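Now for my pick.
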Amino acid sequence: MAETIEILQNHLPKALADTFYMVAVATIIGVIVGGLIGLLLFLASNSLFHQNIILHKTVGFLVNAIRSLPFLILLVTLIPFLAAILGDPYTPTGAAISLSIAAIPFFARVAEGAFTEVDAGTLEASVAQGATTKQIVVGVIIPESLPGLIRGVVLTIISLLGYSAMVGTIGAGGIGDLAIQYGYYRYETFVLIIIILLLVVVVQLIQWGGDRLAQYFTR
């Protein structure tokens, strides 16, 4: 037990910091880029705006292609690319890039779904009043879809937490690396238990906060 406590004291803070860094970077990039792609998919499929079926199908195919890859396969596939730009792909930064690439198509579909749920009558009224696409996006689409987008962000963060644990299998840092190096290879079962409990608590807090925020913005 004393050895387990020492392991947690020496390595858990850095593992949590690495995980927070990876998930935060991937969430920011995934939400911004994925949100824009989701908006593009929505506008390209809607006859009220700049409908472009070819563009919608092409972008949708690329999004689905990336989403169809299990994260571990995507991670291994990206290692040569990460090695070329970073030198050492087995770092939290390398993992953050991989997580970002996984988050972008995931959130793109979530955002597209949230935009699709905006009342069509409201959009038609805005178009009839002569509002530009930019005005409708900023003044109608985003505010009306905000609760769904918030829930999508929460879902993305929770998914990324799970993915971030997987990067430990290649030694890229974070709580997954700690769990494998000490909980699995050194048979420190208590380390695994603590990490599992931490993940459960963190996920519950994120879900609770996201639900409250989504309810606040629900009209």
